[in-house]
Amino acid sequence: xxxxxxxxxxxxxxxxxxxxxxxxxxxxxxxxxxxxxxxxxxxxxxxxxxxxxxxxxxxxxxxxxxxxxxxxxxxxxxxxxxxxxxxxxxxxxxxxxxxxxxxxxxxxxxxxxxxxxxxxxxxxxxxxxxxxxxxxxxxxxxxxxxxxxxxxxxxxxxxxxxxxxxxxxxxxxxxxxxxxxxxxxxxxxxxxxxxxxxxxxxxxxxxxxxxxxxxxxxxxxxxxxxxxxxxxxxxxxxxxxxxxxxxxxxxxxxxxxxxxxxxxxxxxxxxxxxxxxxxxxxxxxxxxxxxxxxxxxxxxxxxxxxxxxxxxxxxxxxxxxxxxxxxxxxxxxxxxxxxxxxxxxxxxxxxxxxxxxxxxxxxxxxxxxxxxxxxxxxxxxxxxxxxxxxxxxxxxxxxxxxxxxxxxxxxxxxxxxxxxxxxxxxxxxxxxxxxxxxxxxxxxxxxxxxxx
Length: 452
Known about the structure:
Elements: E1 9-18, H1 22-33, E2 38-41, H2 66-71, H3 85-95, E3 99-101, E4 105-114, E5 117-127, E6 130-141, H4 147-151, E7 156-158, E8 173-176, H5 200-209, E9 221-224, E10 231-234, H6 246-270, E11 278-282, E12 292-294, H7 302-306, E13 314-319, E14 352-355, E15 364-365, E16 367-369, H8 378-384, H9 387-407, H10 416-423, E17 444-445, E18 450-451
Parallel strand pairs: 1-2, 1-6, 2-3, 5-15, 6-16
Antiparallel strand pairs: 4-5, 5-6, 7-12, 8-10, 8-11, 9-10, 13-14, 17-18
Helix pairs in contact: 1-9, 9-10
């Protein structure tokens, strides 16, 4: 069969959510609970993002906001095997009336200029049947890399502030055949198990110095799986990667996989109970920690996290994840290297909030951000990129998108208290210091809780 002219299908929805990881799933479900006609678009064959395709099984349903915990009570997080978590997610979104489209990749956006501001009105996606235009009143970008916001021309930053380097990438893998009763996890845990050299991190760094591990592997993290004889391994590392560059991403995929046999040799030699272990599964895709961070009406900073800053327009509260910055230029963590912590140690924040304004691009209408592409600096991003926090920002974006449609206002003009009520969050100014957006002309309306 020959086709001389490509036919472009056209669909229309109230909301299109791009990206089927925890953030996108939460956004779609939240919006659908309000009656919003919602399409969830995912480029891979499975929902779940890194939790399924990347074998990152260290996931817990967030405690805050309360509505998110309630919505996702049926998804048991880390208790689910990565092989079937995608089905739990699919059942959830379908049960809430979300239309799901897998194998669909965003390659362009549809925009128009309204009152001198670029407004996103839809996306163009590539599907097995050809290109498709999807028109929507609102869009949520939960793609991780922020491809929708990028194509729309939204301003963004990448990498750490002094040199632009981003955290390294990792290929996760699962091993079987571990003798659990002799393993670190069964005898005090990996962090507490003692070796003649000291801690497990001392063992790892010593092996690296002897050339038994690649130069950039300074930590070998082992995690329990559903079966006692299985472990998920977080160890491979490729530095100096820009994961928005296809050639860099290709190198990351290949180098990461080539490191797996070396890591397995190390585990069999030094990890108790791993003598007869073998690789059972390798992740389908490389794990990317960091790419674009889009400029919102407010930028969450390292200091905001460490001080436990509260915000009057908080849509996620009580975030506790450490500032988990994997060293962009070498092994281990970027901070906290000492004799007792040779691989580094992450700073621990006070419980902090994420304000709604981090989800709103400063110069683009019709669009909300969710997940790891929201507005923040390099260090703050290393905390809020965790799956449970991404899920929480996704729910906030979904409720906000639906509310802005109902009210007929742009997301930047939305009264935030409406979203907070849906999330079960009370406006808590606490020690909040109202902070202007990046544009000097922006002023925060404290009474209405919006930028407009």
